[in-house]
Amino acid sequence: MPMHERIIPYLERAGLYHLARLNSRWFWLDEAMVNAFIERWRPETHIFHMPFGECTVTLQDVVFQLGLPIDGRAVSGFLAEFHERFRVLPEDVTEDTVRIYARAYIMLLLSTKLFGDKSANRVHIQWLPFMANFDDMGSYSWGSAALAWLYRCMCRVANRNITNLVGPLQLLQSWIFCWFPSLWPSGFNDFSFLLASSSLDVLAVVHPEILTAKHSRLWRVKTSLIYFSMIEWHQVDRVVAQLGGV
Question: Which residue numbers delimit the Aminotransferase-like plant mobile domain (predicted)?
């Protein structure tokens, strides 16, 4: 679903514009590399066990890689196919129609980019209550919910006979490229990992509060991550060196 320029103001109000910018670019997933990391994932601690020690995806990484807020209200509320219905925004439509398409775009963005599952092109209607007010959307902790879903997806693959990994895979691969630059593929700068490649233009579009001192203190908090009925633990105390501690 293309990101029409007329829906950009609504994405900015919802605090999801940077995520949408990433979604509008080509994303190449290195499945072999991601699977190699999943093999080192320990579900009981939410940690990657590496030869040199422990590391994991933290709330700080969610902020840096996806530009999402991690403070705010918890994200907790069947499926509907409407991808074809909202594929293209017609020209010369009213602002009411633009808002409808903006809500459809955000629902598709959440259902595929952040909280994707095996339902492919279907969109959960659980997101409908969040669409009522664009300004209120920016008050939710989308970052912590996305990290909870990533943890749960990796735990499912590690614990059961499940071969297809779902979830925010762009976050996972961007985290790998950020912390393991030796794994960068040839032509890395051609891919859309803006934050992992330290591009400065993201500062103009990320949520205005996520890089403040008040917000950054949450990166070091050992706390629960909530995504509807799912609760996962942010055990950042095991990787203090990753955050510059001892």
Answer: 15-78, 99-186
Closest listed residue to residue 62, CA positions, set 236, 240, 244, 238? 236
Length of the chain: 246
pLDDT in tens, 47-68: 999 998 899 999 988 888 888 8
Among residues 204, 230, 77, which one has the least CA distance to residue 144?
Answer: 230
Closest CA to 71 of 193, 221, 244: 221
Say if CB 80 and CB 107 are below 8 A apart: no
C-beta neighbour count of 237 within 10 angstroms: 10
3-class secondary-structure state, position 223:
strand
Q: Which two tokens stand for residue 26?
A: 């080509």
**What is the helix (H) or strand (E) element at residue 166, kind and residue range?**
none
pLDDT tens, residue by residue, 169-207: 888 988 898 888 888 877 666 455 555 555 555 566 566
The pLDDT of residue 78 is 47
- CA angle 158/154/166 to nearest 5° reads 120
Considering the entire predicted model, what is its pTM?
0.82
